[in-house]
Amino acid sequence: MAKTPAKKKPKKAPPVKERRSFLRRFSSLLATLFISLGVLWAGAFLILAPEMPDTAELWRVKKSPGITVLAADGGVIAQRGAFTGAMVGVGRLPPDLPHAVIATEDRRFYQHFGMDIIGFARAMVANISAGRVVQGGSTITQQLAKNLFLTPDRTVLRKIRELMLALWLEGRLTKDEILTLYLNRVYLGAGTYGVEAAAQRYFGKSARKVTLQEAAMLAGLLKAPSRYAPTSDLKLSRDRAAQVLLNMVAAGYIDQKKADAARKKPARLAAQSRTKSSQYFVDWVEERMPGLIGNRDDDLIVQSTFDPVLQRAAEVALTGTLGKHGKNRKVGQGAVVVLDPGGAVLAMVGGRSYASSQFNRAVQAQRQPGSAFKPFVYLAALESGFGPDSVVRDSPVTVEGWQPRNFSNKYKGDIKLRDALAGSVNTVTVKIAEKAGRSKVVKTAQRLGITSPILPHPSLSLGASEVSLLELTGAYAPFANGGQAVLPHGVREVRTRSGELLYRRSGARVGQVLAGRELARMNDMLRTAVTKGTGRAARLKGREVAGKTGTSQNYRDAWFIGYTADFVAGVWLGNDNDTPTKRVTGGQLPAALWHDVMAKASKGLPSRQIPNAPVAVARVERRSEPPAPERPGKEVDFGKFIDGLAGLLSGLPYKPLEDDDLSNVGSD
Questions:
Q1: 20 to 30 Å CA-CA from 522: which of 49, 102, 167, 574?
Q2: Which tops the pLDDT comparison, 193 or 254?
């Protein structure tokens, strides 16, 4: 008879006393941990966080400073009043405005405790995946803490302080109070702080009356106020506002139909009381104030480099040219910049009418320079062993499947470099660029002052990469001043109305970027381009002139950049929508316009030769311009700056342009 298997004895449960002992030890350990963390947090808070102000102080309105801009001769060219008023509470604003901000900046604002764990984790994942910072995890409360108490330094320590202060604010204020403070203190471009000042500046109305479209535009400024300011780039600002509307749909604040209707009728800027073209310069200067003096609420007096006589000459020449030839030659817009050899901006005309469009084509428009880029190619060639009289064969050439052709569709055979530059021969330019090396050409252009990305396509030598008129003109300045790189600037000094000095431009040199031998050779070649080449319309009687014409693909852009011993000036003509002109080349209207401006500018000045060796860069003292006092300053190593910039740009991705688009880039 089979034995019945013995039953397993059940395990005995641990004694009740033992379980209670374990729970007591665990609870004690947990309590100790929490207490320790609390003590550490309190200690860190006391050490790292700044002294907390009285919360009543937080409600003091931050005034957007009034600004008075003086010309170089001391005359007033602009007075823009401070935008002030009582702080506007969230409850008194149209709901669309706080909704637009929350939907774009901090969608869980009313749910988190000052730090959005979900948003922070999402940003971390996105940044790690991209290998760089592509998203920020700061909440509105953290941004307010930074704006109220901290510097903009991006350090781990500052981020910890920011979080501590955010928690402190959340403990002392309601959510609506935090949002009110944020909306009334945040910088929103064009020298304005808070939604009330920004609404007055951009739309000519109180923030209490903004529409959905205007609310979206204001909320869009928070990402990058200077970049997205509608006075800087209205199209970019509207594109950003369209994204804000999509954010509001995603957050459930508006439906798609309402967003679509708002996108079809975007916000418009208020009519400007001042319509003189000098306001392009004033806008440009005003945008630079936070970078020069930080966020101040004092009324400011800005001593600028602006020359009213030159400005008037440039304005008259541009409007006259467009009025006479614009319709027949299908040219709708233009821009003019005049610098002294040291980089001071003396005149800036950003378009034919400031009243019609505040978009500054001298600074904000990025266009292909065509052959106006070629001096950097020829300089790279000279530094690689070529000479002005070196002979290169003008004949068909193919580089990586791309075949450039000359403007004339003809070939001249053997030709000297000086004649190739003067005649703007494309095939020769491509050949010497390939011999010197594209990287050498890129570094040469950047060394002289080109800061826009230069794509490493073979067509870079013919000016396929887009630049602004101001940076291209500034990059010609070393040819005019003895080889010193310049940083185009418009401000000499900033003071408060009470007289406190906030900023004074240093007189320190930026950097020598051209050796004497190459400088003399380039000046000789660029003089030839004016005396015998495509720039003949720019010649001035009894005065040395050097420069280069440029015309982009299909006559979309026409340029002339030139210089004398006293001035460096640039002219661009084209259309805002990038449509072709009626065969306008740089050697025609732009060169003639440049001549008219420079003839007026040079009147009464002694004739001087363009320097072929390093010289001290001095301002042109031809009118009652008070000399700006100098202060000791640290000399900027421009070479290291450019090398670092080159390293950054070299890693940028690029999409090669189609061959059909590049076959005749750089003509004229």
A1: 574
A2: 254
